[in-house]
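Give me structure tokens for this 224-residue protein.
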Amino acid sequence: MKDLQEAIGYTFRDPALLTEAMTHSSYAHEQHKNMKYNERLEFLGDAVLSIVVSDYIYKHCPNLPEGELTKLRASLVCEKSLFDFAKQIDLGSYLRLSNGERRNGGAKRPSIVSDAFEALIAAIYLDGGMKPAEKHILRFVVPEIEQHKNRSFKDYKTKLQEIIQKNPGEKLEYHLVSATGPDHDKHFKVEVCLNSNVIGKGGGRSKKEAEQQAAREALELMGY
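Here you go.
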């Protein structure tokens, strides 16, 4: 398990927790009736994952309404995403599976590997507390959130532009209203205008983000 600890950048004070996280029920039942396996850890890891992701997107996606926050969180904690995260550290290769489960491809089965990823989160949390667990989770989650932001932003501006272009002669412009705060924590406010009339306002940690949120508000006001 030394290689796995190097892969996740965390050294366990209690290696037994890591072993338990990597032990599938099939292995425990094949070896010893009283051997611990990872289902209880999976339960706890799911809760830790949810609170860390919820806290991060609440703080870093201030302009997303509740419904979009819920959808974003769901996309980040679903089996597919967890399986993708697990593959980044080759987690399946460290799993302790029964001979039959291993022969049947258990080390590459999304349900088994994603459950182990949640169990690993719980093991880190129990061993070192919330900070290292949060660090571990955000390593995988933050890049996905940034990609989501970029996709959303592109959609808002592109969609608004496409709608306006249907009416020749209409002029769409974005105006920076303010930029406040220190350099490392700027907040920008932008207005989007149609023929000099403000049709949307937005704010964000970058001018680009503020423009996209202004476009989103304009689309909502236009009924899109």
